[in-house]
Amino acid sequence: MVADTLLPFYLTGPQTCSYIPENQSYSLFLDPEHSLNLTLYSQLSQQGFRRSGNLVYRPHCKPCQACIPIRVLVDHFKANRSQKRNWKANANLEITSINGDFYEEHFALYSRYLNARHSGGEMADSTPEDYRNFLLSNWSTTQILEVREKGTLLAGIVSDHLDDGLSAVYTYYEPTALNRGLGKFAVLLQIQYIQKLGLPHLYLGYWIKQCRKMAYKVEYRPVEYFDGQTWAPSLPNPR
Question: Is residue 239's pLDDT more than 60?
Answer without folding.
Answer: no
